[in-house]
Design a protein that fits this description.
The complex is a heterodimer of chains A (about 70) and B (about 425).
Chain A: E1 3-7, H1 16-20, E2 25-27, E3 34-36, E4 40-42, E5 45-49, H2 55-64, E6 70-72
Antiparallel strand pairs in A: 1-5, 1-6, 2-3, 4-5
Chain B: E1 7-11, H1 15-24, E2 28-32, H2 50-60, E3 64-68, H3 78-90, E4 95-98, H4 101-110, E5 114-116, H5 125-131, E6 137-139, H6 146-159, E7 170-177, H7 189-194, E8 213-214, E9 221-222, E10 234-236, H8 241-246, E11 251-254, H9 261-279, H10 285-297, E12 303-304, E13 326-338, E14 343-348, E15 352-354, E16 358-363, E17 367-372, E18 377-378, E19 381-382, E20 385-387, E21 391-395, E22 405-411, H11 412-415
Helix pairs in contact in B: 1-9, 3-4, 9-10
Classes of the chains: A alpha+beta (about 70), B alpha/beta (about 425).
């Protein structure tokens, strides 16, 4: 199963991930950074298992992130 | 002199740089926290928790500290913004530097002193008047000529435009550091190429690369003298600083929150000496030459006086990176401190240090210190040189920790 990974502490809160893929992303009102919904956190790295069908758009999001902190594996 | 006291404002991208600015004689520093400042990506910004520490150091050293909150703000930033402003208020940070109206409004509401950022592109006296009920200092657009700056300064006095604290509005301009091709930093180049907005502090410096210009219809490449057609040289005004002060400018700002403590120290020290010389009426060409030489030694893309002297076109750099005449080579980091005898120990992780070399030590409570190594104590004994793996000990007054780094300073030519 593919996974979305978010290195959250480097997020600059530009909100492109949320704009492109609102099903998976929220902008946190608390600290202005993006949050990967329902992900599991290991230290500051957030992971979420996704379906094959969501992979293509996730890769687009990965490419769009200006600080390159979103990875699809 | 027209002004009461000229304020020298230095960048602090880290605690090291802050200390370097203090040591070199800055009157004030500016810094950013979290992702709401224009150097979010290029430097490792302070966090909200550091606001207390920065304030404490500033107050202990009797200098002012200003917090930059000058990115574009979105709805989802408001809570973080309020959290930051709460800390600013609690720890009595001297002012916030901002351009977004949400920040300007919030500062007024909370009674936080405000400086209007250069991002606001203020270029005329009426704009200054507009911002006066909200601020005490206005940073003018970097694209103005000195004549325009002088006109704005004299009009402030004539119209008696006072800021929120009741004093005449102070004018601040950039005197040294990187310039950018876009007006007042409003650039979309990195957004177009890498989706990284410069206006959210994520500038990827596309303008600093070399480019060729191609005619798409014929496929011919146009001949352009300089490949770095979008990368201006750095601003340097130490040679015209008397004119800037005569124009009525109150705050002299040095750019460079992503630069190291060595840069901040040298640039601050030169401008401090220049201001002192102007005030003492002994500012002269000989001194200017010495300052220029020192400024050329640290990071720069070549210098020009910006738009202040009325040049129509920018001067473009000839190289991708720095034209600094000195280069620092990483040697190692701190390992131990023997507090009774005040000796610091460093491990060499790379390179080689010989007797007579210039050593650069950088760290949080030290800032930057340069020393010529007349004696070298390596692994406890006097030696001619130290190599990778060796332990170097030297007398020093501050507590050395692993966050202290040592470098060898060499001439760039010699190292090229």
């Amino acid at each position: 199963m593919p996974k979305l990974i978010h290195y959250r502490n480097k997020c600059i809160g530009c909100s492109i991930c949320f704009e492109m893929q609102p099903a998976f992303w929220r902008m946190s009102k608390k600290d202005g950074k993006a949050t990967l919904v329902q992900s599991i956190a290991k230290k500051e790295i957030y992971q979420l298992g996704i379906n094959e069908g969501d992979k293509e758009l996730s890769i687009e999001v990965e490419k769009a992130c200006p600080v390159k902190i979103i990875k699809v594996v | 002199m027209k002004n009461e006291k000229i304020e020298l404002l230095s960048p602090a991208g880290s605690f090291e740089a802050m200390q370097a600015a203090i040591n070199a004689g800055a009157d004030a520093i500016y810094f950013g926290v979290e992702q709401l400042n224009m150097r979010t990506v290029s430097s490792n910004p302070f966090s909200i928790q550091d606001i207390a520490g920065v304030s404490k150091i500033a107050k202990a050293n009797n200098i002012k500290a200003y917090l930059t909150l000058n990115t574009i703000m979105y709805e989802h930033d408001m809570q973080l913004l309020n959290l930051i402003l709460k800390e600013v208020k609690e720890h009595k940070i001297d002012a916030v530097i901002a351009a977004d109206f949400a920040v300007i409004g919030a500062c007024k509401e909370l009674g936080i002193p405000l400086h209007v950022s250069t991002q606001a592109n203020i270029s005329n006296i009426d704009a200054v008047q507009f911002f006066a009920p909200y601020s005490d200092v206005v940073v003018l657009a970097r694209e103005l000529t000195l004549k325009q700056v002088a006109h704005i300064c004299s009009e402030i006095k004539r119209r008696d435009i006072r800021g929120i604290a009741g004093e005449l509005i102070k004018i601040e301009i950039f005197v040294h550091g990187a310039l950018c091709m876009a007006i007042s930093g409003k650039c979309y180049l990195s957004l177009h190429e890498q989706n990284a907005s410069a206006n959210r502090g994520a500038c990827t410096q596309n303008c600093r690369r070399s480019y060729t210009v191609t005619d798409n219809e014929s496929g011919y490449e146009l001949e352009v003298d300089n490949e770095y057609i979008m990368s201006p040289k750095d601003l340097c005004t130490v040679n015209v600083l008397d004119q800037i002060i005569d124009a009525g400018v109150g705050v002299l700002k040095i750019e460079g929150r992503s630069k190291g403590a060595d840069y901040v120290h040298e640039v601050t020290a030169c401008y401090r000496e220049a201001v002192t010389a102007i005030e003492a009426n002994n500012y002269n060409q000989e001194k200017i030459d010495t300052w220029m030489k020192r400024l050329e030694a640290v990071y720069n893309r070549g210098f020009w006086e910006g738009y202040y002297l009325g040049r129509k076109l920018g001067e473009w750099t000839q190289q991708p990176g720095s034209a600094a005449t000195d280069k620092k080579i990483y040697l190692g980091k701190g390992t131990k401190y023997y507090s009774k005898v005040k000796v610091g120990e460093f491990i060499l992780e790379a390179g080689q240090l010989k007797k007579g070399d210039t050593l650069l030590i950088m760290g949080p409570t030290l800032g930057m210190q340069k020393r010529v190594m007349d004696t070298l104590v390596v692994n406890g004994e006097a030696q001619e040189k130290a190599e990778k793996g060796d332990l170097l000990t030297l007398p020093i007054d501050v507590k050395i920790t692993p966050s202290y780094k040592i470098y060898k300073l060499v001439s760039a030519e010699q190292h090229a």
